[in-house]
Design brief:
The protein is α+β, with helices and mostly antiparallel strands. Helices cover about 30% and strands about 20% of the residues. The chain has helices spanning about 20-25, 35-45, 65-75, 85-90, 110-115, 130-140, 160-165, and strands at about 15, 25, 30, 50-55, 60-65, 120, 140-145, 150-155, 165, 185. Strands 2-8-7-6 form a 4-stranded mixed beta sheet. A 3-stranded antiparallel beta sheet has the order 9-1-10. A hairpin with a 5-residue loop joins strand 7 (about 140-145) and strand 8 (about 150-155). The protein starts with 12 loop residues before the first strand and ends in a 5-residue tail after the last strand.
């Protein structure tokens, strides 16, 4: 006979933010669309981030470049037979070496060439529940927050959303509990 164990009731979670501006990381690090992929790789490594918004000269987001984008580019450029002279030649070159323009060519591979060009944006005054809903519907891990001019002012990541979740329904003021559950916007509210 199989015994079924009941899980204790978990209190609902509330989102401790009303607007995108409350969720976002302000002034995110970003990289120019004109940067080379070698510069992008160094930038991501130095900052310890896996991806960064790509901006144009006016500061508007035009895409996202990630470590994955850079690695995929390297994979496409680095296909050669193991043991061939090309293989050993590539082992001796630093990563992203073909990024440097060959003699007589002035067009190195840039971030614009390898980035994911789609950008999904919200305004700072977008309700927090709509931000979460949009992230889920689009299947993305981050949304850009732009001002009325389209300039990047912040990023809302899935981690930012998780940091703002709080349990409510408890009367204690212990860690993670909310004293007044009605003060916060419920995640499942459709306002």
């Amino acid at each position: 006979m199989k015994t079924h164990q009941h899980t204790p009731f978990a209190p609902p979670m509330a989102l401790n933010a009303r607007l995108a501006a409350n969720l976002m990381t302000p002034n995110p690090v970003s990289i120019s669309h004109r940067a080379t992929i070698a510069e992008a790789a160094a930038f991501l490594a130095r900052r310890g981030v896996s991806a960064a918004p790509v901006i144009d000269g006016a500061g508007r987001p035009v895409g996202v470049v990630s470590r994955t984008d850079l690695l995929q580019h390297q994979g496409h450029c680095g296909v050669c037979l193991v043991g061939s002279p090309e293989y050993y030649e590539r082992l001796e070159r630093p990563a992203f070496a073909e990024d440097a323009a060959p003699e007589g060519v002035s067009n190195p591979v840039t971030v614009s060439d390898v980035m994911t060009p789609g950008v999904f944006c919200v305004a700072p005054d977008t309700p927090a529940a709509k931000v979460v809903e949009k992230m889920v519907l689009l299947g993305v891990r981050r949304l850009f927050v732009v001002d009325s001019e389209g300039t990047l002012v912040g990023v809302v990541s899935a981690v930012d959303v998780l940091r703002k979740l709080r349990r409510w329904g408890f009367h204690e003021t212990g860690r993670g509990a909310v004293e007044n559950p009605y003060r916060f916007f419920e995640l499942h509210t459709t306002n």
